[in-house]
Every structure is written in C-alpha cells, then in structure tokens.
Amino acid sequence: MDSEDDMHDANDLESLDDDFYSGETGMGSDDGDGDYEFGNNASDDSDDGNLNRQQENYTVLSEDDIRQRQEEDITRISTVLSIERDHACILLRHYKWDVDKVHEAWFANEESVRQTVGLYENPVARTFSRELLCGICFERHPCDRMCAASCGHFFCYSCWRGYVSTSINDGPGCLMLRCPDPPCGAIIGQNMINLLASNEDKEKYSRYILRSYIEDNITSKWCPAPGCEYAVDFVMGSVNFDVSCNCSHNFCWNCTEEAHRPVDCTMVAKWILKNSAESENMNWILANSKPCPKCKRPIEKNQGCMHITCTPPCKFEFCWLCLGAWTDHGERTGGFYACNRYETAKQEGEYDEAERRREMAKNSLERYTHYYERWATNQSSRQKALQDLQNMQNVQLDKLSDTQSQPESQMKFITEAWLQIVECRRVLKWTYAYGYYLPENEHGKRQFFEYLQGEAESGLERLHQCAEKELQTFIDSSGPSKDFNDFRTKLAGLTSVTRNYFENLVRALETGLNDVGESGNQPTCSRSSSIKSGKGKNGKTRTIGGTTSRSLDDGNHSHWSCESCTFANTKSSMVCQVCHRRR
Amino acid sequence: MQSSRARLFKEYKEVQREKSADPDIQLTCDESNIFKWSAFINGPSETPYEGGVFQLAFAIPEQYPLLPPQVRFLTKIFHPNVHFKTGEICLDILKNAWSPAWTLQSVCRAIIALMAHPEPDSPLNCDSGNLLRSGDHRGYKSMAKMYTKLAAMPKKA
Ligand SMILES: [Zn+2]
Ligand SMILES: [Zn+2]
Ligand SMILES: [Zn+2]
Ligand SMILES: [Zn+2]
Ligand SMILES: [Zn+2]
Ligand SMILES: [Zn+2]
Ligand SMILES: [Zn+2]
Prior knowledge:
The structure holds two protein chains of two kinds. By secondary structure, chain A is mainly alpha-helical.
C-alpha cells in the first residue's frame, strides 16, 4: 500500500512538472536523466546499447575521428594559404589547432608569422659547393649526404639523426624542434622527421602530433577513464558540462571528474580534497578513537590503560570500554582496573551500535563520516549496477528472451531500468556531498533536501530490488511465465517513477533549493507549506502526498492516474502511455 | 660514444691549433680522459671580475654533443647565476637551449658573457641577486670585487 501511495505521488509531481520542464530546460539540462525516455531512443542506439548518447553540445572522437579531423584542418589551411601540408601542420600546431586564428594571423602579416613560427621562404644560407663542413661533427661531407631545414643550414645525416632522436625521446617538446644552428629558429616539420627518424621514433612523433590536436586545442580533452582512448570535443559556452564517453564513462568536461550533476565543480573539488585529506585519518580514527562522552571530540587511545582523560579544556575522565565516567567505576564495575560494564551493557543492548552512532553524529568528524559512508556506498553500488547492466546486455537478456519466448527487442525495458539505476546511483551519491555542505542552520532547505533525497532513495531501492531480485526469477524459470507482462508493467512503472523523483531532486538542487517558500506552481507551495508544519519524516511524506494529489485532483484535471501502473497520463490520451491499459 | 670521442678530438685539435685565437680562454683536456676538460677564463674588463682568472671544470656526457656538457666554476665567484658553494652555473644554453652546434670554446665565451651581464631574475646566489635587484650595484660590485681579489688573483708572494 505504502509503495503505491509513493508511486502515485511521484506521478502527480511528474505530471505537473511537465510544463515546468518544457518551459525551463535548455539544450543541456535534460540529458542526464531525461534521456532514458521510454521508447524514444529505442532505435538510435541499437548497436552498443550502452550509455553512449551523442549530444549536440559535444562529440566523442575515436582515434580515427581525430586523425580525420586533423587531416581536414591541415587540408583546409594548406588549400587556403597555398602552402605545403607539412607547413600547414606546423602553423596549426603553433596556433593550437585554431583554423580561424591561422587564417587571421597569416593574412594580417604573413612575414611576421613566418618569422615567429620559423618557417622561412628563402634559405638564409645557400651553398653551391660539393662538400660542406657539418657544424656538429666538424667533418666534411658531400652535399648529398647532408640536409637542411627551410633556413639552409646543412648538417650531415648522421648528426641530424642523433639530433632528432634525442629530441623525440625527450618528450613532446620535439614538436617545436628547431635548426641546430644556435641563432637560427627554423622549425623542423614532420617531413624532415620522416626523412631522419627511425620507425619507432616516427611513430612516437606522430602520436605527439595526434595528442597535440587534443591537448593543445582548448575545445577538446581526452576521456579521463583509465585506458580509454576516446577524446571529447566540446561546444564552448554550453551550460551543461556532463559528457558521456563511448567507453561508458560519464564525466564533467569542465573539471574532468566523473559526472557530478547536480553538484557544481567547486563543491566536487572541495569534497574530493576533503576525502583525500580525511582518508588516512578516517580509518585510523575509526579504529583508534572514540568520541569523548562529554564533549564529543574524538579521543585516541594511545596507552594500554582504560582510564582516559580528555584533552583540556574538557578533561573529562572516562572509561574507554564503557564510555562511562571514571568516577562511577568501583565495586559495581568490578573495580577501577577491571571494567565489565561494556560486556554487560552489550548483553543488555544498552550500547548498541546505532545508539553509539547517533551520539557520535553530533561530532563533526562523525558528521562527515555519515555523508562519506553514504557517498561511498552509492559509488560502489553504482559500480555493481554497471557490471550487472553489462552482464544483462551480454548474457541475461538473451537467456531471458529464450525462456520467455519473446524477442529481445521486447526486453528494452530491462536495459532502461538498469540505465536508470546506474544514473540514479551517481546522482544520489553526489547528493551526499551536497548534504554535507548544506549549512546546518538552513532548516527549511535541509528538510526539503532530505525529503527529496529520501523519496528518491526509497524509489531507487524499490527499483533496484525489482530489477535485481524479481527479474532473476524469470531468468531462472524453465518456461514462459504468465506474470512476465505484469512484471514488465511494474518495472517500467518503477523506472518512470524513479526517474521523476530524481528529476525533482536534481532540479531542486540545481536551483539551490530555492523552491522553498517561493510561490509559483502548486506542488512547490504545498511541499514547502507541509514541510514547515514540521512533522516527522513519515508524516511529512503523507502530508505532501495528500496535498499534492488533492491539488491535482481538485484543481487541475489535466491528468489521470493509471489504475494499473499509476502513471499520470495526460487527459487527452485514453490509453495509458506506459502499460496501454484503457482509462 | 664513438661520435662523441671523434667530435671531442676535433675540438681538442682545434684548441691546439689556435691556442692564441682567444686570449681570454685557455681550454685544456685531461690527458688521460677526453671526457674531462678544464678551462681558465679571464674576467671580462670593466666588470668586478676584471683581473681575475677563473677555473672551470667540464664533465662531458657520452651523448655529447647531443647533450650539453656539465660545467662549474672551480674558482669561488660572487655572481647571481653561480652557486656560491658548488660553482654550479645557471645558463640556458647549458640546459634546454643547448644546441649540438655549440662547442666547449663557445660555452666558455657564453660564460664570459654571463659574467659581464648577470641575470638577477634567475639567481643561484640569492645574496648577490638581491643586491642587484634592489638596485644596490655598488654593494654587488664591491662584494664581487672582493671575492675576485681573494680567490681569482695570483697571490703575490
Ligand atoms: Zn655531422
Ligand atoms: Zn638554420
Ligand atoms: Zn572514455
Ligand atoms: Zn565538474
Ligand atoms: Zn571531553
Ligand atoms: Zn568501565
Ligand atoms: Zn498504466
């Protein structure tokens, strides 16, 4: 019964939010969750079926794509400026692969560009003799055993080879290699490298050129996932930084941390710094310290004795085992030096873990622990869900479509559910960082936040459980099950409901929880007013549910709730959009 | 290794042949090890180093001339770009601006030029760098001159 109520609520919220959504969201903001729309992209991602959705504000580039783009840019410059491709490549590298900048600079003052880049038109040194002295080995060589860059400073092949190889093996600085003649700035391009370098070095050099196309270009970055070789080209100025690589890694293009919507980059950086600063502390403190029962500061035990004295100004003396005042120790506890209250208390259930935790929550470290634990748990839960999703796509769906005698195309709803779980775990995780930084004294906001987070979390737990446990029974069954269609309805419904909860959560956090107390649309008002009534969490949920659905039923007849799956359908449709049941 | 020997041998012969080409530089090669050289350079005129003779020690890597030689002052010198204790020199051509077309002789010339034109913004000797940067040229000159007298001038017995 409970869960039905909740699902109902969520659909109410969704229906009202429909207008809100279409009106307010820009290009980027509906990609995170809104992507996993039913049926909409059933056809456009059929090949790999992973998280890859190409957005308008970025493009994922494979190595081939990068080479192709690079070649195209070089061709453009070489054609427009009527110069060799080698020289076009040198110019592009100098101007960080910005084609427009090359054009601009070149046509403004070709001579000055040639000077700065080191691309000389007429050799400064020219010779017609048959033999020349090489300026590196100081030997005389016949001219056909020597070569020069655009400046005409000749060195023998053997010295050139050493020069080029030393530079290539010294790192990407070799892309800026110049003529060895000290005052000469003539640049050494790829043609010359290809003439002089070993195959291995040529390969290295061309990788540096490829890398430079991504690393020097301000609009592109490599995907930060380990081992991933894709890059992402971003449309500068876009509001939404979340990008999804073809390797299925979602990351923030701005800070290259994993995608962290609805939390902003600054908060993520702060949180990550905090985690790294605390990580060593954390384990150690949890193992070696307890909060002082009086002042709650963490106290470490660094002696064998159980008699602990808190640091000044508190100086409270207590027993490490039972956390009771040391003055209480005596006959009752087995004497000053032998405490058995800990054991007794444990037997009596007085000092259960939960209570200890609750007490410790007042302490700032424990506050952090609270959020960190939940952040980390959702992180690993997401990791697990990602594996399950892959396993589902690679093995289980095939099996399922066999046992249930249904085409695999009919199993799309399962993939949708898992994609939703993975995405929700990610969002939920970051809401815990958000919660940590939300000031304690912003009571209205905190309550609103915890309410939305709680709703989203319980929705997600239901969905996750359904996709994990209930699905398994159908996979394990020996033949087609009558209940499979009901299961489809349920899982699809839960997916939709959970998506709505999370959309609400994301939107609320992205607007800084400013909906609290703001006038505007109805659910917002009813939400905040019921929160201000200050009931317990469960009571609060009910109140809100009640108010919201009343406002929907009484005031606004634009939607109807499906009796079977609780989906809030628009008034105009006579058949449920989710389960196709008639109104 | 082979090419570095050959090249050093060329430099050696060149030095022998043109001993008087640059009167301010006296380069000599360790008779038992062609990778160890030393030089005496004259402090440039109109600088606090004038009249001093400074000894430099060269340690030459096997990849020479593709990699630069390591050079340091053996004679104590008060100069913003020379480490007062170790004699280490901060000079771009001995690091990233090295070119294989440079020779030991041209390195000496570059060091003489550095003595005449210190770069107080990349100091290895902070005291000296600070004097120059704060505009106390007199202070810098008198210190440098004092050390030149103490360390770089032949003692008149
Ligand atoms: Zn040569
Ligand atoms: Zn040149
Ligand atoms: Zn990737
Ligand atoms: Zn970011
Ligand atoms: Zn205390
Ligand atoms: Zn005790
Ligand atoms: Zn329905």
